[in-house]
């Protein structure tokens, strides 16, 4: 059983029989999502939370705690009591904020332990129909001929879209001009009108407009091609640097959670992610299942942290 609420405090759920390592949670698993209800992260938390709860004979509560650039929810989970056991759904901002924000009230490596990397939404390099480039090599040739003339849209300073585009520029040896917006509804019309020339954004946002001929996808920002875009090359194979860019999602536990409990949750999450029903539902949302365990997720987090620290340093990005 899975129940969604904005605040789980004070919610009484009937405790189900739980394995000994989970008995301390009185049959309840709390999953905190630092984003509003209805989005991709929320949908994944509901899906996977329900599957994990079923495997471990638990009741799950998904609690949406948006705000503060995910810092509010992250701080809350870092200090969460042991009962009920609590997981935090994390995304790119988890590894961006330590380099972008001064004086964070937590340390992502000291105060948390990885449980599992769940999934990712690949990013694609998309250009306005007015841009003459038909591939990445031609696109970069335009950028080198006119430094700064190509403008790129993002949903804000310090977002993964912004920082991954800065990495792409640095590793390509070119200069772009950043134009931050509030979101898709604001920047997409400007992309169509060629007021901005390109974006590195999620395939979920841009696949439909590309299929309708409104914009042109030049490359997928990952190592391999996407099954949904078999004719679109991966970034590294088409004249650009192999910069991997995606919106990824995973689960962290407070450092205080007992290792045995954390390992049970890791196993249940990985089993859930590999289940045919989860694979089908994630792929229907253009989400690529990852299913990496705690050790692999830990390595991934350190790599992401390093890449974003580099991008923030070279771009001068800051949040006041």
Describe the fold and architecture.
With about 325 residues, the chain is an alpha/beta fold. It is built from ten helices and eleven strands. Strands 1, 2, 3, 4, 5, 6, 7, 8, 9, 10 and 11 form an eleven-stranded mixed beta sheet that branches. β6 (about 150-155), α5 (about 160-170) and β7 (about 175-180) form a beta-alpha-beta unit. The longest helix is centred in the C-terminal third of the chain and has 22 residues, at about 295-315. The radius of gyration is 20 Å and the shape is globular. The relative contact order is 0.18. The model is unreliable at about 1-25 (pLDDT under 50).
List keywords for this structure.
320 residues; 11 strands; disordered N terminus; globular; alpha/beta
Uncertain segments of ≥5 residues (pLDDT<50)?
1-25
What is the helix content?
25-40%
Distance between the termini: 42 Å
Strand content: 15-25%
Mean pLDDT: 89
Q: What is the oligomeric state here?
A: single chain
Largest sheet: 11 strands, mixed
Shape: globular
DSSP, total strands: 11
What is the C-alpha radius of gyration, as a whole number of Å? Answer: 20 Å
* Structural class estimated from helices and strands: alpha/beta
Continuous helix count = 10
């Amino acid at each position: 059983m899975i129940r969604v609420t904005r605040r789980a405090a004070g919610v009484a759920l009937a405790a189900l029989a739980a394995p000994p390592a989970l008995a301390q949670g009185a049959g309840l698993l709390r999953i905190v999502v630092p984003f509003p209800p209805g989005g991709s992260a929320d949908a994944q938390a509901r899906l996977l939370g329900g599957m994990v709860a079923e495997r471990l004979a638990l009741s799950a509560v998904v609690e949406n705690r948006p705000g503060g650039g995910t810092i509010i929810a992250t701080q809350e989970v870092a200090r969460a009591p042991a009962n009920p056991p609590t997981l935090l759904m994390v995304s790119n901002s988890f590894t961006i904020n330590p380099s972008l924000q001064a004086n964070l009230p937590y340390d992502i490596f000291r105060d948390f332990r990885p449980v599992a990397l769940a999934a990712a939404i690949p990013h694609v390099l998309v250009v306005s129909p007015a841009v003459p480039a038909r591939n990445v090599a031609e696109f970069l040739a335009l950028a080198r001929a006119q430094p700064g003339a190509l403008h790129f849209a993002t949903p804000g300073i310090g977002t993964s879209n912004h920082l991954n585009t800065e990495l792409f520029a640095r590793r390509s040896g070119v200069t772009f001009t950043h134009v931050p917006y509030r979101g898709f509804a604001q920047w997409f019309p400007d992309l169509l009108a060629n007021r901005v020339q390109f974006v590195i954004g999620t395939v979920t946002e841009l696949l439909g407009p590309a299929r309708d001929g409104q914009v042109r996808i030049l490359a997928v920002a990952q190592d391999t091609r996407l099954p949904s875009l078999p004719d679109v090359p991966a970034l590294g194979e088409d004249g650009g640097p192999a910069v991997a860019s995606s919106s990824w999602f995973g689960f962290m536990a407070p450092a205080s959670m007992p290792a045995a409990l954390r390992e049970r949750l890791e196993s249940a999450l990985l089993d859930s992610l590999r289940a045919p029903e989860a694979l089908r539902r994630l792929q229907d949302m253009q989400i690529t299942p990852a299913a990496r365990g705690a050790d692999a997720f830990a390595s991934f987090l350190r790599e992401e942290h390093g890449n974003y620290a580099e991008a923030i340093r070279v771009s001068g990005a800051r949040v006041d």
